[in-house]
Design a protein that fits this description.
Length: 51
């Protein structure tokens, strides 16, 4: 038996939303990504008070 119900490769917009929604429905999800942050290409960070 597996520890996870789903494996999501990539935490971009689709992967992050899918993982969140599946988790809300009681599923266990493992998300892996090569980047240290979530959101893929829509990731933003604050620089001098501006996103």
């Amino acid at each position: 038996m597996s520890k996870y119900d789903y494996l999501v490769v990539g935490s971009g917009l689709y992967g992050a939303v899918f993982a969140h929604e599946a988790n809300k429905r009681g599923k266990k999800v493992l998300v892996i990504d090569k980047r240290p942050n979530i959101a893929g290409n829509i990731y933003t960070e604050e620089v001098e008070g501006i996103n």
